[in-house]
Amino acid sequence: MTCKEVEELLPAHALDALDRDEAHTLERHLAACRPCRAELAAFRDVAGHLAMAMPPVAPSPELRRRVLNAAAGSERPGLLSRLALWWSSRWPAVVRLSPVMAILALVVSLGSIFWAATAQVSLDRQMAENRLLAARLEAREQLVASLSAPGVEVRELRAEAVAPGAQAVMVINRESPAAVLSTRGLPQLPGDRVYQLWLIRDGQRTSGGIFTVAVDGSSRLEISAPQPLGVYGGVGVTIEPAGGSPGPTGARVLAGSL
Amino acid sequence: MVTGVSTTAGAGQRTGIGVTYASAEDHALVTLLRQRDERAFAALYDRYGRLAFAVSLRLLRDRERAEEVVQDAFVKLWQQPASYTPERGGFRAWFLSVVHHRAVDALRATAGERGRVAGAADGELAEELPDQGPAPEEQVVREHEREAVERVLGELPSAQREAIALAYFDGLTQSEIAARLGEPLGTVKTRIRTGMQRLRVALAPAGLEVGGV
Prior knowledge:
The complex is a heterodimer.
Chain A: H1 3-14, H2 20-32, H3 34-52, H4 61-71, H5 79-88, H6 93-96, H7 99-117, H8 123-147, E1 152-159, E2 167-173, E3 178-184, E4 193-201, E5 204-211, E6 219-224, E7 234-241, E8 252-257
Helix pairs in contact in A: 1-3, 5-8, 7-8
Chain B: H1 26-34, H2 38-60, H3 63-79, H4 91-114, H5 123-126, H6 136-154, H7 158-168, H8 174-181, H9 185-203
């Protein structure tokens, strides 16, 4: 199928009005042809506007619950807030503000700002990235608070042959289930793959969360483990299908002991 | 493992960067979605759940099946947020096209057993309670868009408008439309193609985002 032939079919394809065989042939061409995909996106926009001609209809409230439940349970947001809370409930203010820890926190902040500044992003993504960086900055402010306590340890992870240039550290406290993984130099993955962190205890691997890397190869994962980090002997990071796996299946890119 | 953090994106809840989830732009929410932000997911549901349901219900004419389609589309979005890229156009149009595609698939999968509910009265849908929408300011924008889309549709030659409506709102293929109207397939194809091209050109100056124009 030539681009010219494909172009003729794109408006109908955007309406899902092609016969099955025709749609199939078209999809094969689209998979390999960027200009035709862009053209289809334009007609999808048109189709999307047709939906606007319909009055919105409320589905049952039950649907909202079902949809959001699908997301809940697989995630642990707000970790840094809980980490901060955990610390502040545990240590008096004078200990929390230990000068050594304050300096460590400052170094982490400066390092973060440096990483952010080196991010090379396309103009297209700039706005979204800006919001993300702002959100990260706030998270880091909370992280600074949580790191201002004794007992915080930094563990360096080893890069495997798959990602020889990668660097990674985990900031942990053995008594807390909360930790942070920071990496840079990990390769970008295709859209259907993610990195997944595993916490290893007596040979058992528990997922510590999934993450992707920013354009500059940096990433940060907030971990909320089922148990305090002290019970785990090691960690590993593997490449898994999007959404993560119940157990590691892909190549290991990072490893380390706790 | 489960945190118990609320996933409700109330008007007062903030993304932590000075904007509420309800007012954040789509691309910001999608970025947060990639960071596994449940509240961004809830905000997208609150923003597009009703619209997605309207599309799905219009095609399937069955609340339960329509909700299944919407649920599947949202869950897939949560599981694979990277399936949307800006290359695919605006998020809303892309997501609605995903919903439309799934609903059409569901429709065609059962068309054989059930027979198509041909030309069910539009009044059926009017019985459904139109939703009040996620945020008042967004309702105003949507109302403006609806008027613009209706105006542009109204300016199309009626044969083109009819062919496009049968495809999009009733989920018919070009061959089925030709059979329904008793017109040659080539004629229907030309009407849809020409009509969509006209819409693409006309929607852009109406202030509506259409990629590539």
